[in-house]
C-alpha cells in the first residue's frame, strides 16, 4: 500500500492513491451523508482509517454554504438548569449531524449581544438562546437580519421558541399544595423580566383563584433564580410571627427552593411538618436532598429537539411550542415518605 509522507497530514489524494481509486470516488466513500455499503467504499474507508485520515467536515460544509454548527447562548453554565439545557442541545444537535458550541453572557443585554456576535463570527448555521428577556432587543435584531435562531426555556413572544409550559407548571405546583389542604400559600417567582417568572406566577395565581383562595400580594415575591435569592425571600416570608407566615411555598426554581430550606432551618421551621415546599425544574440534586424536594419536571430533551427543528425548518408553525411539564411529588411538600421515595428517579 502506498504510504503518505511521514509527518504530513493525510489528504484525500493520499487515500485515493492508496486505495487505487479516483479522488471523487474516495470523497463519495468518505462522505458521512452517503451510506454506501459497496465493497469499494468499505475498502476506501478501511484504507483511510489505516492512514489516519481525518475528513475536514468544516471545510466541505463551508463550501456548501453551511458549517453544521450551532451556537448556544446561556447566561452562565454554573446554573444547573442552563448546563443541563446545553447538554440536551448537544445531544439533539449530534442526532441531526450538528455540532453545538456554547457561549455565556451573564445577565447584561450588551454582553449578550457581543456573545451572540462572537458565535455568528464563527459562521454558525443558527443560534439557540436561553437568555431572552421580555422586550429583549437581540431576538428582534436577529429577526431583522434574518439569522436562523430559536429561543429555549424563555420566549419573547415573537421569535421561534421551544419552552416548557410554565403557566401549566406553576398551576400544577400550587394545585398540589391546595390539594394537600394548604390555604396560606406563598409564591416566590423568578425575575419579572423573564417569561418563566411571569408565566409561573400566572399559573400559581390561577390555581389559587380556582380554589377560592385570596391572593396575598405580600406573599407574591419576585426574586432572582439563585440560592441566595431564595434565602433572602425565605427570610422575608418566614421571619414573621407564626400567624403571619405561610404554611406552604411554591418556589419558581429548585435553587430558590433550596434557599427557602436554608431560611426555614435558620428560623427553626421544619419541612414539611411546619412548611410545605415545591420547587421547579427537578434538577438532579432535588431528589437527593436530606428532605427530597417536590418539583416540577421540564422535558429538556424535547425542548432541545424542538429548538433545532425550528432552526432546520424555519417558517414552520407554530413558532412558539410549549412542552408539558410534570409534577414530581416528594417529601418536602408533605407527601408520605413511602410515596415520595417511589416518585424519585
UniProtKB/TrEMBL annotation:
GO molecular function, a single term: transcription cis-regulatory region binding
Domain HTH lacI-type: 10-64
Transmembrane segments: none
Keyword annotations: DNA-binding, Repressor, Transcription, Transcription regulation
Gene3D superfamilies: 3.40.50.2300, lambda repressor-like DNA-binding domains
Pfam family of the protein (one): Peripla_BP_3
Domain of life where this protein originates: Bacteria
PROSITE patterns found in the cross-reference section: HTH_LACI_1 (PS00356), HTH_LACI_2 (PS50932)
InterPro entries in alphabetical order: HTH_LacI, LacI/GalR-like_sensor, Lambda_DNA-bd_dom_sf, Peripla_BP_I
Entry annotated with the keyword Repressor: yes
Entry annotated with the keyword GTP-binding: no
Protein name: LacI family transcriptional regulator
Species this chain originates from: Paenarthrobacter ureafaciens
Taxon lineage: Bacteria, Bacillati, Actinomycetota, Actinomycetes, Micrococcales
Amino acid at each position: 500500500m502506498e504510504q503518505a509522507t511521514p509527518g504530513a497530514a493525510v489528504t484525500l489524494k493520499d487515500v485515493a492513491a492508496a486505495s487505487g481509486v479516483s479522488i471523487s470516488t474516495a470523497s463519495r466513500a468518505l462522505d458521512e451523508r452517503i451510506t454506501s455499503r459497496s465493497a469499494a467504499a468499505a475498502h476506501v474507508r478501511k484504507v483511510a482509517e489505516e492512514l489516519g485520515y481525518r475528513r475536514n467536515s468544516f471545510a466541505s460544509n463551508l463550501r456548501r454554504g453551511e458549517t453544521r454548527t450551532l451556537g448556544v447562548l446561556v447566561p452562565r453554565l454554573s446554573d444547573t438548569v442552563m448546563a443541563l439545557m446545553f447538554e440536551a442541545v448537544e445531544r439533539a444537535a449530534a442526532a441531526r449531524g450538528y455540532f453545538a458550541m456554547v457561549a455565556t453572557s451573564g445577565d447584561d443585554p450588551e454582553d449578550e449581544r457581543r456573545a451572540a456576535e462572537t458565535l455568528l463570527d464563527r459562521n454558525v448555521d443558527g443560534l439557540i438562546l436561553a437568555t431572552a428577556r421580555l422586550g429583549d432587543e437581540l431576538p428582534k435584531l436577529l429577526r431583522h437580519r434574518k439569522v436562523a435562531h430559536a429561543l429555549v426555556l424563555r420566549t419573547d413572544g415573537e421569535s421561534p421558541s421551544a419552552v416548557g409550559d410554565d403557566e401549566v407548571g406553576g398551576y400544577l405546583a400550587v394545585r398540589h399544595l391546595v390539594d394537600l389542604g394548604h390555604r396560606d400559600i406563598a409564591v416566590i417567582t423568578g425575575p419579572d423580566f423573564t417569561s418563566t417568572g411571569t408565566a409561573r406566577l400566572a399559573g400559581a395565581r390561577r390555581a389559587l383563584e380556582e380554589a377560592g383562595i385570596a391572593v396575598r400580594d405580600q406573599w407574591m415575591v419576585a426574586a432572582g433564580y439563585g440560592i441566595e435569592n431564595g434565602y433572602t425571600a425565605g427570610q422575608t416570608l418566614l421571619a414573621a410571627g407564626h400567624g403571619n407566615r405561610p404554611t406552604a411555598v411554591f418556589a419558581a426554581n429548585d435553587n430558590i427552593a433550596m434557599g427557602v430550606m436554608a431560611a426555614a432551618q435558620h428560623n427553626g421551621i421544619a419541612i414539611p411538618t411546619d412548611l410545605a415546599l415545591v420547587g421547579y425544574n427537578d434538577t438532579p440534586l432535588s431528589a437527593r436532598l436530606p428532605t427530597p424536594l417536590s418539583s416540577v419536571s421540564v422535558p429538556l430533551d424535547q425542548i432541545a429537539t424542538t429548538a433545532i427543528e425550528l432552526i432546520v425548518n424555519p417558517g414552520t408553525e407554530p413558532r412558539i411550542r410549549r412542552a408539558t411539564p410534570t409534577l414530581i411529588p416528594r417529601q418536602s411538600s408533605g407527601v408520605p415518605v413511602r410515596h415520595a421515595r417511589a416518585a424519585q428517579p
